[in-house]
Amino acid sequence: MTNSIADIESADVFLITGSNTTENHPVLSSTVKRAVTRRGAGLIVVDPRRIKITQYADKWLRQNLGTDVAWINGLMHVIIAENLYAKEYVERRTVGFDEIQKTVEKFTPDYVEQITGIPANELIEAARMYAAAERGCILYCMGITQHTTGTDNVKSLANLAMLCGNLGIEGGGVNPLRGQNNVQGACDMGGLPDVYSGYQKVIDPAAREKMETAWNVSDLPDKPGLKVTQMIPAAHDGNLKALYIIGENPLVSDPDLNHCEKSLKNLEFFVVQDIFLTETAQLADVVLPSACYAEKDGTFTNTERRVQRVRKAVEPPGQAWNDWKIICEIGTRMGYPMSYENSRQIGEEISQVTPSYAGIRYDRIEYDGIHWPCPTVEHPGTPILHREQFTSGKGVFHAIDFIEPAEAADEDYPMYLTTGRLLYQYHTGTMTMKSDGIMEIAPECFVEISPQDAAKYEVKDGALVTIASRRGSIVARIKISRKAVSGTIFIPFHYAQAAANRLTNSALDPISGIPEYKVCAVKLSKAA
Question: What is the CATH number of the domain that holds 191?
C-alpha cells in the first residue's frame, strides 16, 4: 500500500475494484464502511459480482470479466475531456501525460460500454465522482492482478491516481490488499526470483557485490531465477529435477491442477515444508514439519508495509522447527554454514543489507510497528509513500491499450467462471478446514449462479452439477444467489475435493507470471 490503513478512514471517495473486501479483508472493510456511513465518504465499487460491499456503494459498476484496462481508460478519458484532472500536479510531478492522453482518447463512454458492459452514463458519473474528491483512495486485490493483463491493470490504476493527484497525500493512494499476513514481508525479503531483499536487483553488480561481502561468498548468480509459474511447466518437461516448497499448497491453489499434479509427480526429488500434511505434502519425498506463527518469534510485514513483532506463545509440537532453523540446517549440511542464535540476529542482518529496513530494530518495534522505508535508526518510518517525489523522481504515466482475456466463452463453453475466497475459509483450507465450527458453516464447494441462469439450465438450489472447462471438470452444488450476474458463475477455490483450479486457465501475465485465475470459459450440466 502507498498509504497506511489508518489513512483509509480520511478518504473522501473510495474506488474498490477486484476486492471482495468484506469477506477477504473484513477488518479493513470496517474502516471503509465507517467512512461511508459516518462521514459520508463516497464509494465506487467495480466488480463483476454483486458483493456485499456494493450495499454501501454510491456506484456499482459491473464490468465484463477481464476488461479492467478499458473501464479505467474510460474514466481517464472523461476526466481529461472534462478538464477535471489535477493539472498542476500532473505538470509538476509526472511525465508521459501526452502519450496517455492520446491512448485514452478512443475510450469514449460509448466505446467502453461496448467492451465492458458498463453503461456510459454510469461511467461518466463515476469519473466525475472520483475526480471531484480532494482525497481519492483506490483499493484493489487479486481480482485486478490475476489476469494475463494484471500488470497493465495495476499500472492503469496508478495512472488514474496520478491523473487526479491522489498519490503522496493522506487519504489517497493506490493500495493493494495483501491476501495473507506476511506476503508483503516475503516479497521484501527477496522471495521473488529477480531480487535480493529490499528489491535490489540480482542483475545489479553493486547489489551482488554487497551480498557477496555480507554472506562471505563469491560468484552469486547474475541472472534471475524461475518464477513459480515457470517451475511447474519446467518440472513437467523434465528440465527441473528437484523442488523445495515452503508454506504453499499448489495442488489446490495453482491453475490447471491436472497439469500441476503431473508436473510434481515428474520430479526426481520433492521436498515440502509446512505446518500440516497438505495435499501437496502428500506427494513429497521428504516433509519437513515447521512451526506456525504462534510458535515462533520474528516479524511480519503487513499490507501497509508496517514491520511488526511476532512473539512465541506456545511450544511447537513434535519435531517441528522454526522455518529459518530448518533452512539454516539444510544450508549447513550442504556445505555453507548458516548459524544464527535467534530471529533477532537475523533481523540485525536484514537491517544491514536492506536499505528500506536499515533503521528497523527489534527494540524500536517492541510495541508499535514501523512502516518501511526506514533508512536510519532516527527515521520514524514512512506511512505515506511519494509525498515529495516518486522513487524515480517524477511519476511515469504508462500508455496502455486494452487486450482481451486469454480465453473467451463460445458455443462449447458458453459461460464464464471467476474464482475467489470466502469469509469462512482461508486460502487452501490448510488451517481453517481443521476447525469443526468453520466446517459447519462452509463445509463444501459450491457454484454460485444467478436466478436467471439457474432457470435457463433448469437447476435448483443445492443440486449437483458438473462444471467443465478445456482443462478439466468438477462436481459441486448449485447456490442460487443475487451476487451472481447472468452468464458468469463464481466458485471458491479453497476446496480440494472440488478444486476450482482444475478448471482455471494457466495463461500468464508476461511480466509478473501470474495466471489468469479470474477469467475462463466453462460449461454447466446436471451431474449424473
Answer: 3.40.50.740
Query: What DSSP line would sit under 446-484, residue for residue?
Result: EEEE-HHHHHHTT--TT-EEEEE-SS-EEEEEEEE-TT-
Coil, helix or strand for 361?
A: coil
Number of domains in the chain: 3
Q: Is the dihedral of CA 442, 448, 450, 454 positive or negative?
A: negative
With respect to residue 409, please indicate whether it lies within any of the assigned structural domains.
Answer: no
Reduced to 3 states (helix: H, G, I; strand: E, B; else coil), residue 297 is: coil
Q: State the residue for C-alpha cell 493500495.
A: 175
Q: Give yes or no for a contact between 404 and 386, defined as CB atoms under 8 angstroms apart.
A: no
Confidence of residue 431 (pLDDT cuts 50, 70, 90): confident
In a domain, 407, yes or no: no
State which of 177, 193, 208 marks the end of a domain.
177
440-484 tens-digit pLDDT: 999 999 999 999 999 999 999 999 999 999 999 999 999 999 999
**Angle in degrees, CA 77, 2, 149, rounded to 5:** 50
Please check whether residue 426 is in contact with residue 182, taking contact to mean a CB–CB distance below 8 angstroms: no
Task: Say which residue the cell 553488480 belongs to.
Answer: 205
**Start-to-end C-alpha separation, the chain:** 47
Q: Which residues lie below 8 Å from residue 434, measured CB to CB, with a gap of 6+? A: 276
Same domain, 226 and 150: no
Q: What is the H or E stretch that residue 525 is in? A: strand 520-526
- Distance in angstroms (rounded) separating the CA atoms of residues 13 and 207: 41
Show the domain range for 221. 183-371
The average pLDDT across 1-12 equals 93
Q: What is the pLDDT of residues 288-306, one digit of tens each?
A: 999 999 999 999 999 999 9
Containing H/E element for 490? Answer: strand 488-492
pLDDT score, position 203:
96
pLDDT of 181: 82
Confidence at 429, pLDDT banded by 50, 70, 90? confident
Q: What values do phi and psi take at 297, rounded to 5?
A: -100, 155
Q: Is the dihedral of CA 473, 474, 480, 483 positive or negative?
A: negative
State how far the Cα of 169 lies from the Cα of 386, in Å rounded to an integer: 8
Q: Tell me if 401 is assigned to some domain.
A: no
Cα–Cα distance for residue pair 204/461, rounded to 1 Å: 57
Residue 179 above 80 pLDDT?
Answer: no
**Alpha-carbon separation of residue 38 from 10, 15, 54, 79, 366 (angstroms):** 11, 18, 17, 28, 33
Q: Residue 428 pLDDT more than 90? A: no
Same structural domain for residues 358 and 467?
Answer: no
Q: How far apart are CA 251 and CA 496, in angstroms?
A: 8
Query: Contact at 8 Å (CB) between 445 and 474?
Result: yes
The residues that bridge with 467 in the sheet, in sequence order, are 474, 524
Q: What is the mean pLDDT of residues 431-438?
A: 89
Per-residue pLDDT at 504 exceeds 90: yes
Rounded to whole angstroms, how far apart are CA atoms 227 and 88?
40
310, part of any domain? yes
